[in-house]
Amino acid sequence: MGCSWFACLSGEAREVDGEIAAIDNVKIFKYREIRQATDDFSAENKIGEGGFGSVYKGRLKDGKLAAIKVLSAESRQGVKEFLTEINVISKIQHENLVELYGCCVEGIHRILVYNFLENNSLDKTLLAGGYTRSGIQFDWSSRANICVGVAKGLAFLHEEVRPHIIHRDIKASNILLDRYLSPKISDFGLARLMPPNMTHVSTRVAGTIGYLAPEYAVRGQLTRKADIYSFGVLLMEIVSGRSNKNTRLPTEYQYLLERAWDLYERNELVDLVDSGLNGIFDAEEACRYLKIGLLCTQDSPKLRPSMSTVVKFLTGEKGIDYKKISRPGLISDFMDLKVRGPVATKAEQVNRQNYTNPSSSNASSRDHSNAYSSGASSANAGNTFSSTI
Ligand SMILES: Nc1ncnc2c1ncn2[C@@H]1O[C@H](COP(=O)(O)OP(=O)(O)OP(=O)(O)O)[C@@H](O)[C@H]1O
Ligand SMILES: [Mg+2]
């Protein structure tokens, strides 16, 4: 006997008035309801635009505020595939991950409905001028709390979710803050919603490139260690209160990682801590955080600690003093990349550049047979790109 497609999903489908209302704990919203919630996708309600589409603030019928992500045309999966992936993503719940309320899948529309976070993303607050611009006081303890929270969320995705999830886009704009400044990682699992021939399109390549692990950027070698590299960059941004790249600074200070390594070698890491803290911070702890950032961004992926170890390093449960830190993996050519625009994917743009890493002597890092297809995680299965270098 045949079954309708939704009944064939692993979860329980509930019908209301002959229509699908929910699958497991995923609410299925009507397009009409989403339009009402966002005031017909009004410009005033638009709160952002990313690689996957536009984001609107909206009030749902039950009174809850939501962040409504309208996926771009490229992400039009079939209804069944889309709902299967949504069902998986919605079950991944942790206090440091943004909660998915539900979705809308009507006709050509593919829309995700998330819990709305009051205090925006780290790039629009802490990295955009901190207190003066956002009105949020990021004192040392709130920063430490954000670092530990993000580390716990990522450790959960990497080590507790089965099959594990590689986020692929850990960066300041994907860290949202609730009213208590508790961090929530957003956009995890979104790669699952992309058709197989498409990698995540980013229109702000320069901003994203600063977070990309060299082995992922160049050879498409995607493992959890690529996320750990991005986390290391983010950690240093949070402690220093600056972006990984700042062209307004003198040349030798422009790249956060280079600057951190330079100061580390001179035993002056404390100079990197945000001057906006007015000297009110635990210097030993702040330097430890910066060293953990350096451990995470080491050129060799296998030298980078796992996220659960990072959590222990951050909380002090495990010491890092005995750890030798090797030079960060830098993609210096990419850092001058001026290409912007929606045409090329992040991977395509990166792959046009040459990877120069003076510290790398590993012959395999010059391996040119680099079509990527991850068998390690279903989160990435099917996402392929090939490099031209
Ligand atoms: N759940 C949410 N609550 C509050 N604001 C949100 C939420 N989700 C997204 N936003 C806002 O929308 C903006 C755009 O998010 P979006 O994820 O589309 O783009 P991005 O993170 O800048 O880039 P990318 O597509 O590469 O992740 C965010 O910077 C944030 O300000
Ligand atoms: Mg995002």
Shape: globular
- Count of DSSP helices? 12
Q: What's the arrangement of strands in the largest beta sheet? A: 1-2-3-7-8-6-5-4
Which radius of gyration do the C-alpha atoms yield? 21 Å
CATH topology of the largest domain: Transferase(Phosphotransferase), domain 1
* Helix fraction bin: 25-40%
Written as H for each helix and E for each strand, in order along the chain, the element string is HEEEHEEEHEEHHEEHHHHHHH
Q: Output the CATH homologous superfamily of the largest domain.
A: Transferase(Phosphotransferase) domain 1
Heterogens: adenosine-5'-triphosphate, magnesium ion
Tell me the distance between the termini: 52 Å
- The share of residues in extended strands comes to 5-15%
- Going by helix content, strand content and strand pairing, the class is alpha+beta
What is the CATH-assigned architecture of the largest domain?
Orthogonal Bundle
CATH secondary-structure class of the largest domain: Mainly Alpha
Domains, number: 2
* Strands, count: 10
Characterize the main sheet. 8 strands, mixed
Q: State the low-pLDDT regions, or none.
A: 1-8, 196-207, 335-389
How would you state the average pLDDT, rounded?
79
